[in-house]
């Protein structure tokens, strides 16, 4: 296994998980538990693929994927924040809707190839002997995902809007008493999380595997959810968790290609098992950082 290609492959493999997880972290920081990440990712994957194939533009595909998943997430937001439906049940329903909708939309596109994003040729950095090909020869979404992690971290830690978002997640009643629009803030967070999940799904169908296959997210949304929880709602740990999952995924694919004497089923499940095991060990002292109002409905009259 070429270590340069291995690291480059890990960055590509981790990007969809990272995009979905960082968006879900913002949603949960606002006090909302959305279990529909898988449904939003698969919706983004099929909408992005369909738009990219029909327009010839992967950029438009990504934009359409983000918008479609964000709009889908708003249905969850309205049901849970306006009509106060159960967040767990509604999130699971969102996943089922996304899976069914994607199968319907994607049927005519099976077997097609999509246009994909070009690699960026970063001047000087891309020409470095080892690091150039390893770190500086990727498509723009890889760097956008890393920039998004930094932006979310800075937003939550240093900005007034980030403080308000965290306050809503910690005590929606206190935030409401101070005059903040709790439902509006949470809907905005849900919209952002849906857009991020859509981008992650589109990355799967437009870059990582530039074709449409039913169910191609293969549990990536659930891994994103697990990463957020075990990373204790911290952006840096979310990044580590996503890259850990990406690394183990690439490693098991290389081992399968090399004909390793390990059952294929065990190799296929290893990314999920190892990622969760390591994240559990990281948080062995207890999972801290969960917003106090996570999953609790807000009653405007309270």
UniProtKB/TrEMBL annotation:
<keyword id="KW-0472">Membrane</keyword>
<dbReference type="InterPro" id="IPR001851">
    <property type="entry name" value="ABC_transp_permease"/>
</dbReference>
<feature type="transmembrane region" description="Helical">
    <location>
        <begin position="59"/>
        <end position="79"/>
    </location>
</feature>
<keyword id="KW-1133">Transmembrane helix</keyword>
<feature type="transmembrane region" description="Helical">
    <location>
        <begin position="91"/>
        <end position="109"/>
    </location>
</feature>
<feature type="transmembrane region" description="Helical">
    <location>
        <begin position="269"/>
        <end position="287"/>
    </location>
</feature>
<feature type="transmembrane region" description="Helical">
    <location>
        <begin position="140"/>
        <end position="156"/>
    </location>
</feature>
<keyword id="KW-0812">Transmembrane</keyword>
<keyword id="KW-1003">Cell membrane</keyword>
<feature type="transmembrane region" description="Helical">
    <location>
        <begin position="6"/>
        <end position="27"/>
    </location>
</feature>
<feature type="transmembrane region" description="Helical">
    <location>
        <begin position="212"/>
        <end position="231"/>
    </location>
</feature>
<dbReference type="GO" id="GO:0022857">
    <property type="term" value="F:transmembrane transporter activity"/>
</dbReference>
<feature type="transmembrane region" description="Helical">
    <location>
        <begin position="32"/>
        <end position="53"/>
    </location>
</feature>
<feature type="transmembrane region" description="Helical">
    <location>
        <begin position="238"/>
        <end position="257"/>
    </location>
</feature>
<dbReference type="GO" id="GO:0005886">
    <property type="term" value="C:plasma membrane"/>
</dbReference>
<feature type="transmembrane region" description="Helical">
    <location>
        <begin position="187"/>
        <end position="206"/>
    </location>
</feature>
<dbReference type="Pfam" id="PF02653">
    <property type="entry name" value="BPD_transp_2"/>
</dbReference>
<protein>
    <submittedName>
        <fullName>ABC transporter permease</fullName>
    </submittedName>
</protein>
């Amino acid at each position: 296994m070429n270590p340069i290609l291995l690291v480059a492959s890990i960055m590509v493999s981790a990007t969809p998980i990272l995009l979905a997880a960082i968006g879900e972290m913002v949603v949960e920081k606002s006090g909302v538990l959305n279990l529909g990440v898988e449904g939003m990712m698969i919706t983004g994957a099929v909408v992005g693929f369909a738009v990219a194939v029909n327009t010839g533009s992967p950029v438009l595909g990504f934009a359409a994927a983000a918008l479609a998943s964000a709009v889908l997430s708003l249905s969850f937001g309205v049901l849970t924040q306006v009509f106060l439906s159960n967040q767990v049940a509604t999130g699971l329903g969102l996943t089922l809707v996304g899976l069914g909708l994607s199968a319907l939309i994607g049927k005519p596109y099976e077997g097609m190839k999509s246009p994909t994003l070009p690699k960026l040729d970063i001047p000087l950095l891309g020409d470095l002997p080892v690091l150039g090909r390893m770190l500086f020869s990727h498509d723009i979404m890889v760097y956008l995902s890393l920039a998004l992690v930094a932006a979310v971290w800075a937003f939550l830690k240093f900005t007034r809007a980030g403080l308000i978002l965290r306050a809503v997640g910690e005590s929606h009643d206190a935030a409401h008493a101070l005059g903040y629009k709790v439902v509006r803030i949470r809907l905005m967070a849900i919209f952002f999380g849906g857009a991020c999940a859509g981008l992650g799904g589109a990355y799967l169908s437009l870059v990582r595997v530039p074709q449409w296959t039913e169910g191609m997210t293969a549990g990536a949304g659930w891994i994103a959810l697990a990463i957020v929880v075990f990373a204790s709602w911290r952006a840096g740990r979310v990044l580590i968790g996503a890259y850990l999952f990406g690394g183990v995924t690439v490693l098991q694919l290389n081992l399968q290609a090399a004909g390793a004497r390990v059952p294929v089923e065990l190799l296929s499940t290893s990314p999920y098992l190892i990622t969760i095991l390591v994240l559990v060990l990281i948080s062995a002292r207890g999972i801290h950082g969960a917003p106090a109002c996570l999953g609790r409905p807000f009653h405007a009259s309270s």
